[in-house]
Amino acid sequence: MSLLAEAPGYFRVYSDGSVKRDERETVPASDDSSSNGYKSKDVVISSTKPICARVFLPDTPDSSSLLPVLVYFHGGGFCSVSTTWLGYHTFLGYLAVKSQSIVLSVDYRLAPENRLPAAYDDCYSSLEWLSCQASSDPWLEKADLSRVFLSGDSAGGNIVHNVVIRTIQEQSCDQVKIKGMLPIHPFFGGEERTEKERASEEAAHFADLLWKLSLPEGLNRDHPWCNFEKAELSMAEWSRFPAVLVFVAGSDFLKERDVMYAAFLEKKGVEVNLVEAEGEVHVYHVLHPESEATCLLLKQMSEFIHSF
Hints:
Helix content is 32%, strand content 24%. With 308 residues, the chain is of the alpha/beta class. The longest helix has 16 residues, at 118-133.
């Protein structure tokens, strides 16, 4: 059995098709909110695939007001990571408190065992689950399905984009009203390199590997799932796109393409704004959930959510 591909610190792919993922510190869900202002629990979206998720519920003492819902898709290049990781759990708990939102964070199936569109299908299924469970799950009794937001970082930001396109093209999930998108350092690509990608050869080759392991065999980086410029939507469909707040990190090699993404959406008539965290690295909010930059990100996300 030989090693076919490796992402040091994350995973290794072997010739027999097996994948060995490195272990990281995880956090169990807890319904005790006494120390941090939120509680969490794990739920099953689909037992057959399987798809799980973690719900974060902020304390709302003596309040009968409905809460917005933010559905979050983690990063990891479609190939690794879990919402149970310490950095994600901490950040999303803080987000639930700061934004006074119910957060549903989805653990979708990973590539290369489950190539795209598996992650898109699973995350889309989470919206269907949300619409079905909101009336029966006590944790969702305050969920305002007319104020739903999609967010995610890196590959998760890519998933946000592609799931929204699916809801528009299929005109589905009517009970869930997506008011806005908050992609954080979204992971896109293309056969033609950007200037920053050409200058960051090692990072670009790593991104190429992730796309090679994630896309169905025979497809390249100009497929619409990877290259947003190749999306085939009518102007009527673009007009149904929700408002978008794109977050970029100043020291992230994906920054240039993410700026292009915001400009592309603006040309299509989408209401879009871009916020840069100067000097910060890719997914800094997961690496350093207690940092000053992350606190500012939480504030910006909360303000966007409550502008609707």
